[in-house]
Write a structure and sequence with these properties.
By secondary structure, this protein is α+β, with helices and mostly antiparallel strands. The protein is built from 15 helices and 16 strands. The radius of gyration is 23 Å and the shape is globular. About 3% of the residues have low confidence.
Amino acid sequence: MDVVEACRGSQELEDAAQIWAEATAFRDGESEIACLSDSLPIIEAVLDRSPQAFVLLARADGGSAAGFAAVEPITAQSTTETTAARAEVAYIGVRPSMWGRGVAQLLLRQLQSRLTAAGYTHAELSVYAANVRAVALYERLGWQPVGAPTPHRQTGKPEQRYELVLEAALASYLPLPQNLVGSIASSEDPQRRAWLDRLPGTVRGLARDWGLELGAPFQPGGQCSWVAPARAADGARLVLKVEWLHPEAEQEAAALRFWDGNGAVRLHADAIFGDTIALLLERCEPGTLLSELAEPEQDVVVCTLLPRLWREPAAGHGFPSLQAMCAAWADETEEAFARAGDSTSSAGLDRGLARAGLELFRTLPVSADRDVLLATDLHAENVLAARREPWLAIDPKPHVGDPVYDALQHMLNCDRLFTDPAGLAWRLADLLELQRDRMLLWLFARVVQESPGQPALGEVAVRLAGELSW
């Protein structure tokens, strides 16, 4: 798949307009698709508003148009001057037949690179709050919500504004990943800001102590860590990960040491000091994200890696339990439901179903027939192509418990969760040679647990409940 610029009068611009028409109709449940004479002027209008505006077109390997993005500078109100280096993603769309193939992610990454190179510091966009797939993708790539949703000026549907920090003053002494900057800029925790202030000195000290030559950090990166390619004195190609020490990160090094490269990246060194954890890791090259493959192909890779990680740790291992994590999350979700009042979610998840889901979320870990070390966060963005093996897992958040749980995060990231949730659960269960009924129960429970933050999951929970043998 490649990305090209769609110029005025070109076939590529007409392709972008056609995709806009198809994607909009599909999103809004319309049977009629706008004709080119109606859709093309909408995309051309973006180019008309500024000479700096541009349209990118993503093409599949066969050359067919797959998705597009139209971008323009943001202008100050009532003037023709642009505001401080901000760009607006006016439109972004993917042909419905290409959903789930990483097209939107590719376009967003290309936009980040192009806008950064052009000197922009921020990008902004708006999305329907109910478009849960788009919202999930934007947030995974570091976009941060700005303010509360407001009604769309034409449809009246709630629309959420999002912002991406492309470059910030925080990076004056050390290049910083965009997601890390955005996360800390929006945080109210002064300790995290202080940690970021110390980060340049921390990175320099680690490079000195471990004899490393460092490259620029990977973009857009994670929300809690600085991760960059490194070369050791002996020429070994490694990765340095410097992370804000939070509960999910405390046992990452221990898990990687336990797996010793079997399905996951190898750990070469680690250190914990104060509020920082540092890991020196095997570098995955070429480092392609598994998310660039179609979802069914992702299933096979994920279900090949997971069983290799599922081993029982020795007594006294020190890893946290899945049971404790689920109990804590269930408590938080109950509080969220209580704040919601009579309606537990905008998707119509009633209280009885919510209670049943949370009860399962608490009891399923107890009824497991075995307890093994889990990654708990293995999905297509946490699996990279490598040389030592075709694919390796990264960024585990280890807990000990029921292996069935470990398939959930991948399913939560799949488009098929919203079209055929039971079929998705059964497919993963079959690939992993696990019980179908138990996989369905776990997925239902986890979807209920996540529904306060993603109301569209309420409908998924209702559909899954209809497949359960109560």
